[in-house]
Amino acid sequence: MASTFSFDIVSDFDWQELVNAVDQTEREIKARYDLKDTKTTVELTKEGLTIQTDSEFTLTAVHTILQQKAAKRQLSLKIFDYGAVETASGSRVKQVIQLRRGINPELAKEISKLIRTEFKKVQASIQGDTLRVTAKSKDDLQAVIQRLKGADYPVPLQFTNYR
Fold first, then answer.
1. pLDDT, tens only, 14-28
2. DSSP state at residue 155
3. What are the distances in angstroms from CA 40 to CA 63, 71, 91, 94?
């Protein structure tokens, strides 16, 4: 039996579910009467989404549709980092939405400090864009997970490799 137990804290999302959510968003845009003639495009790349549409009003409607489709597919809305609305050619508007993936170093330090101050028997180490949490007791690890689930961070947190 292992003398220490551990788990990893990561921030990631299911890429295929995001592709499906964007596809459903595009289909609904083409089907809805109020958005049909706006020539709205939603382009998905590895870095993020680019939405081009007629006005900020239709951009807000596209945001709502995208968020609904993402939520139905169990994607956290925290993965979307909305950029500034820019004017594109003509009277169209464009917005780039970055996708958040991984825990940035500042947030990793903040989570690590929280774990060190509140849980004396637990160690947290930063490993790139993940955090490894180790302890001698599984109960201590469960308490850390419950504490972090209750906190509100700007990125969605998942707990993997529980051993």
1. 899 999 999 999 999
2. S
3. 12, 21, 13, 10
